[in-house]
Structure formats: structure tokens, C-alpha cells
Amino acid sequence: MTKVIVHIAGSSDGPLMVYASCIYPVCMPSAPPTPAAEKKPPAADRVYRHVKQAVLDRSYAGGTLLTEGGLAEAVGVSRTPVREALLKLEVEGLLKLYPKKGALVLPVSAQEIADVVETRLLVEEYAARRAVPAPAALITRLERLLAEQRELAEAGDLAAVSDKDRSFHAEIVRNAGNQILSRLYDQLRDRQLRMGVAVMEAHPGRIAANLTEHAELLEAIRSGDAEAAAACVRSHVGRVRELIRGRTGDQLDPHPVRRRRLPGRLPGPGLRPLDPPGGRRAVLVWSAGVSVYFVAIIFRTSLGVAGLDAADRFEINASALSTFSILQLLVYAGMQIPVGLMVDRLGTKRVLTFGVILFTLGQLGFAFFPHYGMALFSRALLGCGDAMTFISVLRLGSRWFPARRGPLVGQLAGLVGMAGNLVSTLVLARLLHGIGWEAAFGGSALLGVLVLAVMLVFLKDHPEGHAPPPVPKEHRGAAFVRHQIARSWSEPGTRLGMWTHFTTQFPAMVYLLLWGLPYLVEAQGMTRAEAGELLTLVVLSNMVIGLVYGQLIARNHRARSAIVLGTILAAAVCWAAVLGWPGTAPAWLLLVHALVLGACGPASMVGFDFARPANPPERQGTASGIVNMGGFTASMTSLLAIGILLDLTDDNYRIAFCALFVLQALGTAQILRLRRAALRRESERLVASRVETVHVPA
Q1: In this structure, is the dihedral angle defined by the CA atoms of residues 192, 196, 199 and 202, taken in order, positive or negative?
Q2: Closest Cα partner for 608 from 526, 695, 499, 534?
Q3: Does residue 467 or residue 122 have the better pLDDT?
Q4: Are 596 and 511 in contact (CB under 8 A)?
Q5: How do residues 492-546 score in pLDDT, each as one tens digit?
Q6: What is the pTM of this model?
Q7: How far apart are CA 510 and CA 631, in angstroms?
Q8: Chain-centre distance for alpha carbon 118
Q9: Tell me, what DSSP letter sits at residue 389?
């Protein structure tokens, strides 16, 4: 480059004289041409595109509540353009705005799917006939779209597959040359894309089937057979109707919800089409399943009335005696998540069958093995079978009864379990001292054989027409298991449920399972008969309070936190009063103590009521397993701590039972920490559950 320096001389009122001073080359880097900067889309448009794309590819599934703050942070804008974009999406029928709550992603309704299918059939059958004879350009475009769809299907990009699927059909419609029909068909685009992704997620086998049916349609058009092409369209599009006969559109979303009435709106149908009907048949099937849990509880708590006899039979001290229950609970707690996954995968009947066989063999071994080591193995086997019962019964209830009955059905299951505890306390204790160890434990094992027969005859996993979808191949293997556990654990409601179960169950569990009878006999100076009566009172109190708690929570979910925290406080106060009383506690205090401990079991069931609304149906078993781990982990820890402290303090029950307060404090702190987040998430989902009918603009 050559640079010229020019001097300008002269004054402001005189003529200017311009002359060159010098000329010399200067080397400078050449700058690339600067194109006009691309204009950034307005903030509202960016939010609109972000949310719409996420709704169409189901990153934001139906029932998700979006907040202005969350969207503003995700897109990097202020809240004002977020409001503008949400209003536009509400007009398009994708969202429903709730003041001061956010925007609800509207689920795809069954009626919407039926309307779209009917419109597609009318338009696409006509277009398929008009496509014959097909120009070469149309055949080329269809072949290219089909090849691209295959590639995207292999890559697993469902949103892109759905888009190419829709483009394939749109190409045939445009070829008909009717502009009005083409515009009408284009108006279905968003709904088609969203439904396509939903159907492929729920039915992965449809991806390959779609490709095959597209190839058949292309071949019919290429061969010039108009009627065959129309028949292919009828068959292909009509498949969607078949998919929604037993599965409504809103249930293609991961959080299916029961519709409720809102003020000023017309009442909707009483139950969702997929909501189980309940009724006598449901009661019969559920009774067959819960009978297995009843027997499992008898076997589980049998050591509680035989603790002193077991110490004499196997010649062991307090720590070794507590090892029986600790090992049983260790196996039980460790099996909870695997059992939850098994229930989700195999169904209730198979898992309960395995459970009955295992805990019956465990009870038989405990009856006849004379050595401590083999008796330990038997209790571990019993714990493994026992672990398979409760979660299976919860799943059975959710499959056969409407969702609104969930809390009551759960409490009834707990009540039946306490009835098993009652049988163990009243019947097995008397048999033990009447006919001896082997006859009592061996005879009780026959109950396992009886319930196995009842279950095989009467139990069924689900009602007719309510079968869960088959487990896709990609939902198998270690990676999916880890994903299932991680997703369940990520929900604050699951963790709150676990800590609720952890904190409320164990104060009564250690009392009934092992240490109640020795404490009342050795520390309080009662006879075995008197101690047995107090343990029976705990069980009876549990049964009555369980019904009360179930009704309260079914009527008002907001009562859950008050019930849980109130029970924890009452149990702590009663334990402190009994342990702190000088000498032996008075009879009235022990009675109150027993009544309050009876509330611990029903309060622990509230943990499942926190986890249930936080997880979709396909994760209910896994979430229940996580929750159930809580109480049994605490019970196992406290049983071990009490046994060790008794050995270290020469059977000082006052010091040993103080271990309970440490675990109560830990659990209460976690409940208070998680409660706000869990209830906020649940409140957001509650807004979703109040949607009655999705009205989509034409």
C-alpha cells in the first residue's frame, strides 16, 4: 500500500494551498471484508422459539409448569419478552397461563389426537389418489425423505424423525395442487410433530413400522396404483387410533394427572380413561396380594416375642441377639431399590411369588436349624423374601384402585401388616410357650404355603384393558437402571418421603421387633404376659390411627407435614418421659407411650404419599423402594446401637435407648430442609392436575 501525506496551508479567510510532502510505501495487514452483522432476533422471538421447540420435541412434556424466571434464565433475557412469548404460545393452544404460577404445558388430549387423525385421513387419502400417476420429481423427493428418516431413526433423534415423517406426507399433499388443502394441512404441523414424538416415545416399535409403511406407500405411488396408495394411507394413519384406544393422549406424557374441577368450569369426567376402576374385583385381587404381606409381617416380627427364648436356644448375648434382626433388616433395606426395579419390570405377581418362597424357606430354617450361623442365614433369607412384599402390594393398589384412593389403600396395607404383628404377639407367643420352638415356628411356615396358593389363583397384575405398555429394549440394562434411580432420587418428594419414613418408623419398630419385650420385662419389672399386652396395645393403636391418618390425608394433603412432625415430637416426648422417670415408669405412662408408638407406623406411610405424586407411574416401584429404605435403615442402625450399648453398660436400657434421639434429630433436620422444595414442586404439579380438557384452537 502507498501512503501519501498531504499538507494543507492557509488561513480561514484566505485561499487553501494543498501540496504533497512525501510519498512512501507502508505495509499494513489487509482486513477481511466485514459483512453486515446479522440482526439478532428480538428477545420475545427467541423465547418463543425456545419454548415452542421444547414443547414439540417434548423436552417440556405435557403437565410441566414453566416459570417466567426459569425461562428468562434459560434464554438469557428479561421477564418482559418471556410474558410476550408465553401469551403467543397460549393463543396457539400449547400453553395455559396461570397468574402468579407460570405457564402449564398442555397435555395432548385424546380428542385432539382423534380430530387430527380424522383430518389427516380426509386430506391424505385424497392427495394419495391425486399423486397417481406420480411425476419423477415427487418420487425422488419421497425417496430422499425416506432415506433421511431412516438415518435419523438409527441416530435415535425422535423429534427429527417426527419432522421427516410429517414432511413425507406433506410432500404428497402439496403434489395434489390444491392450495387450500395444503394450507389446511400445514396448520396441523405442530400437533403432528408433538404427537409423533409422543407416540414414538410410548411405542418405540412404531419407528420401524412407520418406515415400512412409508416404503409401501411410496411403492404404491411409484407403481401407479391409486387405490393401493389410498389404502396404505388409511392403514398407516389409522394405526394412531389403535394406539389411543387403551391409552389417551394426555397419558402419553410422563406425568399423567387426574383432572379436577376448577371454579367457573364445567365438571369433567369422573375418572381418566386409564384410571383403574376399583370395585369388588379390585378388592378381591388386592386382598390376595396383601395376604402375602400379612404373613410376611408375622414372620418378620416373630423374633420380637421370642427374643429371650432365642438367646437361650442359641446361647448368645444381647449384641448377637440383635444381629438376627439387624441382618434381616440389612437384607430388607438393601433389597428395596432392586425390588422396586423388579416390580416395575416383572410385575407384582412374579415378585410376590419369589418373596413367598424365600420367606417361607427362611421361617422353616429358623425353626429347625440348631446352630447360630445357620439361623442367621435363615433370617437373611426371610428378610430377602419379606423385602419383596410391601412394594409389590403398593404397586398392586395403584394398578387396581383410582389414584384418589392411594393414601387410604396404603394405610390399609399398613393396617393389615399390623394385624400380622398382632397375630405374632398374641398367637405365636402362646404357641411358643405351649408347643415349643420347632413346632411353633415350623407350623407358622405353613401359612406361607397357604398364601402362595391363594395368590396364584386370585392375583392378577392389573385389570383388563389397563395393561402397562411393554418395556422398550432401551429401558433394559444397567444404564437405564442407573437413570431410573437417579431420576427418582433427584425428586425432592422422593427424598422427603425417605427421610419421613426414616424418622417416624424406627421408634416403634425397634420396640416391636426386638427390644420391647426385654425392656418391659427386665427394666420395668413386668411379666411376659403384661409386656405382651402392652405390645398388643401398640399394634391396636397403630391400626386405629392408620385409618384416621389415611382419611385425613385423602381429604387434605396439606395435613401430611403436620401429621409427620407432630408424630415425631410426640414419640420423642414419650420416650424422654419413660426413660427419664425415676425408677420404673407408672402404668399410665407406659400406656400413653404404647398408644403414641402406635402412631409411628401410620406416620411412616406418609412418606409414600410424598413420593407418589413426585414420580410418574414407570418410576413408582423405584421411588417406593428408596422411601422404604429409610425406615429400615434407621431401624437397623438403632437395633445395633441399642445392642452394643446394652453390652457396654451392663444392660442399662436408659442409656441404650437414648440412641433413638440421635436418629430422630438427624431425620427431623432433613425433613425441615427438604419440605419446602418438595411441596413447591408438588404445588406446581397440582396446577397441572387441575387441567380438565385441552381446548385447541382450530
Answers
A1: negative
A2: 499
A3: 122
A4: no
A5: 999 999 999 999 999 988 888 778 888 898 888 888 888 888 888 888 888 888 8
A6: 0.54
A7: 11
A8: 34
A9: T
Comparing CA positions, the residue from 361, 363, 532 lying closest to residue 440 is 363
Coil vs helix vs strand at 137: helix
d(CA 104, CA 151): 34
Binned at pLDDT 50, 70 and 90, residue 357 comes out as very high
Query: By C-alpha distance, which of 447, 344, 449, 423 is closest to 391?
Result: 344
Q: Are strands 2-9 and 65-66 parallel, antiparallel or unpaired?
A: unpaired
- Would you state the cell numbers that stand for residue 55, as one nine-digit string? 414443547
Question: Residue 458: which of 285, 339, 606, 271 has the closest Cα?
Answer: 285
Catalogue the long-range contacts made by 224-230 (C-beta closer than 8 Å, 24 or more residues apart). Answer: 224/132, 224/133, 224/134, 225/132, 226/128, 226/129, 226/131, 226/132, 227/129, 229/128, 229/129, 229/131, 229/132, 230/125, 230/128, 230/129
In angstroms, the first-to-last Cα distance of the chain is 66
Q: Which of 484, 486, 480, 508 is nearest to 596 (CA)?
A: 508
Bond prior to 472 in cis (omega within 30° of 0) = no
Helix axes 446-458, 280-301, angle to 10 degrees: 160
Residue 513 DSSP class: I
DSSP for 223-257, written as a single string: HT-HHHHHHHHHHHHHHHHHHHSSS-GGGGSSS--
Nearest to 71 by CA among 45, 47, 104, 46: 47
Q: What residue has cell string 384402585?
A: 401
Per-residue pLDDT tens digits for 303-334: 777 777 888 888 888 778 878 877 877 787 78
Q: Tell me the three state secondary structure of residue 316.
A: coil
Spatial separation of the C-alpha atoms in residues 151 and 412, rounded to whole Å: 52
d(CA 539, CA 516): 12
Which residue type, as a one-letter code, is found at position 564? V
